[in-house]
């Protein structure tokens, strides 16, 4: 068996490491590792348009939902929100700009717009009450938003493989 020469071996090692680090969310700070991941069967840009349209129906003063690149904590994600005016909630999420199809949406917090209270999804729950709030927020997100958007999805849990 012939041994690989040094340059080819180096290229192979670099490709292997690049694959590992690009697929591992744990090495990137601000990568939403505790956020709940939903895999949606839609192209990223189409999802952004659907959400913009949905938010426009919830609040007529919105012409477009603004999706920003999260330059401060993680420049690899678009961040945005989905408005649920009927229930006074705003769901905050991130979409990897590397995700094209299917699109992974990471739900990281929910704000009650009446009270100003937040349910933080992208953090380890400290007690049973926070676990209940988190489960309720995810259930409501699926029932009130994802079903209304009418996009097939799979709830994949979070990157830490924690079930709450």
Tell me about this structure.
The protein is α+β, with helices and mostly antiparallel strands and 164 residues long. The chain has one domain (31-157). It is 34% helix and 25% strand. The protein is built from three helices and seven strands; from the N terminus they run H-E-H-E-E-E-E-E-H-E. The chain has helices at 6-23, 44-58, 128-149, and strands at 36-40, 68-69, 77-84, 89-96, 103-112, 118-120, 153-157. Strands 1, 2, 3, 4, 5, 6 and 7 form a seven-stranded antiparallel sheet that branches. Strand 4 and strand 5 form a beta hairpin. The radius of gyration is 19 Å and the shape is globular.
Number of domains as seen in the coordinates: 1
How does the helix and strand content classify structurally? alpha+beta
Average pLDDT: 78
- What are the low-pLDDT stretches, counting only 5+ consecutive residues below 50? 14-29
| Helical proportion, percent range | 25-40%
Amino-to-carboxy terminus distance: 51 Å
What's the tally of helices? 3
Characterize the quaternary organization of these chains. Answer: single chain
Overall body shape: globular
Proportion of residues in extended strands: 25-35%
What's the Cα radius of gyration?
Answer: 19 Å
Number of strand elements: 7
Task: Summarize the entry for a quick read.
With 164 residues, the protein is an alpha+beta fold. 34% of the residues lie in helices and 25% in strands.
Set out the fold topology.
Elements: H1 6-23, E1 36-40, H2 44-58, E2 68-69, E3 77-84, E4 89-96, E5 103-112, E6 118-120, H3 128-149, E7 153-157
Antiparallel strand pairs: 1-5, 1-7, 2-3, 3-4, 4-5, 5-6
């Amino acid at each position: 068996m012939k041994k690989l020469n040094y340059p080819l071996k180096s290229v192979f090692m670099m490709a292997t490491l690049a694959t590992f680090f690009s697929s591992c969310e744990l090495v990137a700070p601000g990568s939403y590792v505790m956020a709940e991941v939903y895999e949606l069967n839609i192209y990223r840009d189409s999802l952004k348009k659907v959400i913009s349209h949905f938010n426009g129906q919830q609040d007529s003063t919105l012409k477009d939902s603004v999706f920003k690149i999260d330059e401060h904590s993680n420049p690899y994600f678009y961040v945005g929100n989905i408005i649920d005016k009927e229930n006074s909630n705003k769901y905050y999420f991130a979409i990897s700009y590397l995700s094209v199809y299917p699109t992974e949406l990471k739900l990281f917090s929910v704000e009650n717009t009446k009270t100003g209270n937040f349910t933080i999804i992208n953090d380890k729950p400290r007690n049973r009450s926070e676990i209940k709030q988190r489960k309720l927020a995810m259930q409501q997100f699926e029932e009130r938003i994802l079903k209304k958007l009418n996009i097939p999805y799979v709830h994949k849990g979070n990157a830490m493989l924690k079930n709450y």
